[in-house]
From TrEMBL:
<dbReference type="InterPro" id="IPR036388">
    <property type="entry name" value="WH-like_DNA-bd_sf"/>
</dbReference>
<dbReference type="InterPro" id="IPR001867">
    <property type="entry name" value="OmpR/PhoB-type_DNA-bd"/>
</dbReference>
<dbReference type="GO" id="GO:0006355">
    <property type="term" value="P:regulation of DNA-templated transcription"/>
</dbReference>
<protein>
    <submittedName>
        <fullName>AfsR/SARP family transcriptional regulator</fullName>
    </submittedName>
</protein>
<dbReference type="Pfam" id="PF03704">
    <property type="entry name" value="BTAD"/>
</dbReference>
<dbReference type="Pfam" id="PF00486">
    <property type="entry name" value="Trans_reg_C"/>
</dbReference>
<feature type="DNA-binding region" description="OmpR/PhoB-type">
    <location>
        <begin position="1"/>
        <end position="96"/>
    </location>
</feature>
<dbReference type="GO" id="GO:0000160">
    <property type="term" value="P:phosphorelay signal transduction system"/>
</dbReference>
<dbReference type="InterPro" id="IPR027417">
    <property type="entry name" value="P-loop_NTPase"/>
</dbReference>
<dbReference type="InterPro" id="IPR005158">
    <property type="entry name" value="BTAD"/>
</dbReference>
<dbReference type="InterPro" id="IPR058852">
    <property type="entry name" value="HTH_77"/>
</dbReference>
<feature type="domain" description="OmpR/PhoB-type">
    <location>
        <begin position="1"/>
        <end position="96"/>
    </location>
</feature>
<dbReference type="InterPro" id="IPR016032">
    <property type="entry name" value="Sig_transdc_resp-reg_C-effctor"/>
</dbReference>
<dbReference type="Pfam" id="PF25872">
    <property type="entry name" value="HTH_77"/>
</dbReference>
<comment type="similarity">
    <text>Belongs to the AfsR/DnrI/RedD regulatory family.</text>
</comment>
<dbReference type="GO" id="GO:0003677">
    <property type="term" value="F:DNA binding"/>
</dbReference>
<keyword id="KW-0238">DNA-binding</keyword>
Length: 1024
């Protein structure tokens, strides 16, 4: 859709067909949304804009009705266009801008960058030709449109002035003078417009009229405003008096030309230019090297009046006064002390700027921020039309200031900048590494780009740990503070007070940021004032929480400073103590109603917890290392990260020492996670070793007997190891482990532990073919988990009950249970669990014949598993996709997908998936008519199924065996295998539901056909 506001409100389709929006209120709503240029407009604001005091009976409902009308009008014209009107708290936004206004601004901006007058004039002719009347005609007096109308009108007048100046260089002065006369009368105080008119008069041989025009302007300013003409217009007047053929225009600029394109900042430039239209003081703040100056200059080029850049880092010494800064600014504007304006430097500056639409860009204010703040406040008070755009690593802190943070470049823009500066034609993975490690800071990327020629991209990426030595030379024409990466940060660090330096360097030990409490405790500080000052100075970035972090380069710099100060080791020890205590406190809340909050906090602190463990291991602190991994075990378990857990536990267990109880628990975690990671080899020995300490205490009566006297730990260890062995076919062993756990938890009165043991026993009962016992244990576990408020436990039981419903053909109940479990998993942020639940729902969709939905659910589950690096969940999802392929008859695609997992399944001792995988491959071979291959696959599958002890897996392998025999003509063997399969399913209490009978029905028909053929040929029937 295309929207027009440079005249009456206009809506057209992408093909240019007009769209009728008849209702006045709906048109007003559309205009309001357009005027906010993609920003969310609160519902309360829209109601006030549309109805004012004349409110309808139900304002919110009436607004919704108008929104619906607008969406319907757009949708009727162009399908899908209703989505442009988005509902976003706390109101609505239009995901589109006024196309003619955006095009107008683009053309005006391009004209300012064009060197040739003819090009500038052509661009501005095109821009002004877009206007069909007053902006937002019909709504121009509405409060919601007024700021945007004023901004667009100002840009339009600026474009008129720019076109006039370009045409002065092209000739045709007589016509131009006549054209400008009514405009000057309409806008008598616009000095740039009057200057163009004076020059046109002068160049047509009418200098007296040009001088009279100046005199008229001077009198009007004096009488109406008590002011004098600006220095530019005064200079033009003097030039005409001297009869200087090169009389200058009134617009003044000293903005530097672009030497290289500004990359990745188009939206920022538009935003800053828009802020300058709404506020008189805008401060761009951000860390050193982030590109504040270039952004400010680019935005200043869009200013419709005069604009000057004042580089304070080059001319103002630290500690300069406001008067000294005023003298520097006056010098940039070309004002001398004899300019005839009283009041000292600040007064002369105010007098020169008064009456002009001027912009001062005060660049790099941080080392003279007090003086700049004083001067800016005075100028803004005394010069009504003045705008100031400041760049600083901290705010000026005066009234009316609008702060605009300048963030590092996002990944794509950072890569574009780096490759452009380095002269690269391709982007490798190393480019992404460099951009990420340099935080997307433009100056750091440009410094790094200078090293590509000597080192290449790969070597440069490898050497970034030594970044300050590596990035030690930049452009010779850059300020000294920007020639090396170290100098950039020195510029911010050196002026800090000692307390600020101490906190900043101590913050560097955190990884991934820190909470307020962590920042203060680890830094050994008691108040937030110092931290707040570091945030103001753009050395620390504050995010939601609040959470405090540093850019990687700043952190690396501060680590060096921390070592220099002799504080590195002690600060790291405080870091270990803090995060060990945090992990232990969180662990107590991970089995109950506080699960979600505890998991969220631990997820935020993952980097810090890893760093704390590395520190404890490096320093040989076995106590802290074991405390940390034991406290983290529940998080790794719930998140589904067994590989990460195994690595961390191995690190901690390798440190000599440690309390017996902590060692026993860590060894249990390690044994269980090893099995959860798919390694079932030597699992009996591993479990015995893990339980040895607990069993010794049980047998010998406590620690004197060489064991750990920890009844809860003993119960937990048996449960966890039993849970981890699920799927390896050890039904009897798991039953023994779970039984010990259940008895122990019940003796302690631990409801959560009893629920966990019952949930595991229920899952094993499903596998062992006892759905009645599974349902009873599951129901009791669900009740106990509910009393504890444990959502993880609830989703585990829901999964088991869902499998029972699926096995008995109650697909509606199965889907409902899996959906409940999915909601719990998503609510807790347990994405591995969510992946499995999505695949479970995919299986239900497949069994009910909805292949499209099945594919969608399995693919979502697969992507989530890949993101979480969880191979079991990925395998489960991918097999689901293969099942759908086979059911559609796409045997080659299904086989390719299945065989991709065959080696992985065989490598995992006792993996439950192997039997199913071989069965599916056997069915594919049978469907292709290859009886020998089918039989071999089903024979291996039957052996794997019997090893697991799962009767349904055994039945499936026997059904496949029957199909292979039937294909080969061995009718008796086929019938015998099919009967055995049926008996196995009956014993398990789970006969085949309708959705799973396809293979058995096909095999049974083939057996019948073989028997009939044998009878017709005169042979004996099967079994004779």
């Amino acid at each position: 859709m295309r929207f027009g506001v440079l005249g009456p409100l206009e809506v057209r389709t992408g093909e240019g067909v007009p769209v009728r929006v008849a209702d006045l209120k709906v048109r007003a709503l559309l205009a309001d949304l357009l005027a906010h240029a993609g920003r969310v407009v609160p519902s309360a604001r829209l109601i006030d804009d549309l109805w004012g005091d004349a409110l309808p009976a139900n304002p919110a409902a009436t607004l919704q009705a108008r929104v619906s009308q607008l969406r319907r009008a757009l949708e009727d014209a162009e399908p899908g266009a209703r989505a442009l009107v988005e509902s976003r708290p706390p109101g609505y936004r239009l995901d589109a801008r006024a196309g003619d206004a955006a095009r107008f601004e683009e053309l005006v901006a391009r004209s300012r960058e064009a060197a040739e007058p003819s090009v500038r004039a052509a661009l501005l002719d095109e821009a002004l030709g877009l206007w069909r009347g007053p902006a937002y005609a019909g709504f121009e007096d509405a409060a919601f449109a007024a700021p945007e109308v004023a901004r667009l009108d100002e840009l339009r007048l600026s474009a008129v002035e720019g076109r006039a100046e370009a045409r002065l260089d092209l000739g045709g002065h007589e016509a131009l003078a006549a054209e400008l006369r009514p405009l000057v009368a309409e806008h008598p105080l616009r000095e740039r417009l009057r200057a163009a008119h004076m020059r046109a008069l002068y160049r047509t041989g009418r200098p007296a009229e040009a001088l009279a025009a100046f005199e008229e302007h001077r009198r009007r300013l004096r009488d109406d405003l008590g002011a004098d003409p600006g220095p530019g217009l005064t200079a033009l007047h003097r030039a005409i008096l001297r009869q200087d053929d090169e009389a200058p225009g009134a617009a003044a600029f000293n903005l530097p030309a672009e030497v290289s394109p500004l990359i990745g900042r188009d939206a920022d430039v538009r935003d800053v230019a828009g802020l300058l239209g709404a506020a008189r003081l805008v401060t761009l703040h951000g860390p050193g090297g982030v590109g504040k100056t270039r952004l400010a200059v680019a935005a200043a080029r869009r200013h419709p009046g005069a604009a000057w850049l004042v580089a304070l880092d080059e001319g103002a010494a630290s500690g300069a006064s406001a008067e000294e800064i005023a003298t520097l600014v006056a010098g940039v504007l070309g004002l001398r002390e004899d300019a005839g304006i009283p009041g000292g430097p600040a007064g002369r500056l105010a007098g020169a700027l008064r009456g002009r639409r001027a912009l001062l860009v005060l660049d790099n204010c941080e080392h003279v921020v007090e003086a700049v703040a004083g001067l800016a406040a005075a100028l803004l008070r005394d010069v009504p039309d003045l705008r100031i755009l400041a760049t600083s690593r901290e705010p000026l802190g005066i009234g009316g200031e609008r702060l605009r943070a300048v963030a590092p470049l996002p990944a794509e823009a950072a890569a574009e900048l780096f490759t452009a500066r380095a002269g690269l034609t391709e982007r490798s993975a190393a480019v992404a590494v460099i951009c990420a490690r340099l935080d997307g800071v433009p100056l750091a990327l440009e410094l790094a780009a200078t090293r590509v020629r000597a080192l290449g991209v790969e070597e440069l990426a490898r050497r970034l740990d030594d970044r300050f030595r590596l990035l030690s030379s930049g452009a010779r024409d850059a300020p000294a503070r920007q020639r090396t990466l170290r100098a950039v940060i020195d510029w911010s660090y050196e002026p800090l007070a000692e307390a600020e330096r101490a906190m900043l360097r101590r913050l560097a030990v955190h990884t991934g940021g820190a909470s307020l409490d962590a920042a203060l405790r680890v830094s050994a500080q008691s108040g937030v004032e110092v931290l707040a000052r570091l945030v103001d100075r753009s050395l620390v970035v504050v995010g939601e929480g609040p959470r405090y972090r540093m850019l990687e380069s700043v952190a690396a710099y501060c680590v060096e400073r921390l070592r220099e100060a002799g504080e590195y080791e002690e600060t790291r020890r405080r870091h270990v103590r803090y995060y060990t205590a945090l992990a232990e406190e969180a662990e107590t809340r991970l089995r109950g109603a506080d699960q979600r909050q505890a998991l969220t906090r631990m997820r935020m602190e993952t980097g810090n917890l890893r760093t704390a463990l590395d520190t404890a291991v490096h320093e040989g602190d076995a106590d802290s290392a074991l405390r940390l991994v034991n406290a983290m075990g529940w998080c790794w378990f719930l998140w589904g990260r067994p590989s990460e857990a195994c690595r961390a536990l191995a690190q901690a267990l390798a440190v000599p020492g440690g309390a017996p109880a902590a060692l026993a628990r860590a060894r249990t975690w390690h044994a269980g996670f090893t099995m959860l990671d798919g390694d079932g080899s030597d699992r009996d020995a591993r479990c015995r070793a893990a339980l040895a300490a607990y069993d010794a205490a049980d047998a010998d009566g406590g620690v004197d007997g060489g064991g750990v006297d920890d009844p809860w730990g003993r119960a937990w260890a048996h449960w966890f190891l039993g849970f981890a062995r699920t799927g390896f076919g050890d039904l009897a062993v798991i039953d023994d482990l779970t039984g010990v756990a259940l008895e122990g938890f019940r003796s302690l009165g631990d409801g959560w532990g009893e629920a966990a043991a019952l949930a595991t026993r229920a899952a094993q009962a499903v596998a062992g073919g006892d759905p009645g016992a599974a349902a009873r244990d599951g129901a009791r576990a669900l009740e106990l988990f509910g009393a504890e408020g444990d959502r993880w436990g609830r989703l585990q039981v829901s999964d088991t009950l869902g499998l029972i419903a699926e096995a008995t053909g109650d697909y509606a109940r199965a889907a409902a249970l899996h959906e409940d479990a999915l909601r719990d998993a998503e609510g807790l942020g347990l994405w591995t669990e969510a992946s499995v639940r999505l695949s479970r729902l995919g299986r239900i969709a497949l069994l009910t014949g909805d292949h499209e939905r099945a594919d969608d659910l399995h693919e979502r589950g697969r992507r989530l598993a890949v993101r979480e690096s969880h191979r079991r969940a990925e395998h489960f999802a991918d097999i689901g996709l293969a099942l759908a392929e086979r059911r559609r008859g796409r045997l080659e695609e299904a086989e390719t997908r299945l065989r991709g997992w065959l080696d992985w399944c065989r490598a995992i001792d006792g993996a439950p998936g192997l039997a199913f995988l071989l069965a599916e491959l056997g069915f594919i071979a049978e469907l292709r008519g290859d009886a020998d291959a089918a039989l071999a696959l089903h024979a291996e599958g039957l052996a794997a199924a019997r090893a697991t002890g799962h009767p349904r897996a055994v039945a499936l392998a026997l059904e496949g065996t029957a199909g292979a025999h039937a294909l080969a003509g061995r009718v008796e063997d086929a019938a015998e295998a099919l009967d055995a399969a049926s008996a196995a399913r009956a014993a398990a209490g789970a006969p085949l539901p309708p959705g799973e009978r396809g293979d058995v029905q096909r095999i049974a028909r083939r057996i019948e056909q073989r028997v009939e053929a044998r009878v017709r040929s005169g042979g004996p029937p099967a079994g004779a």
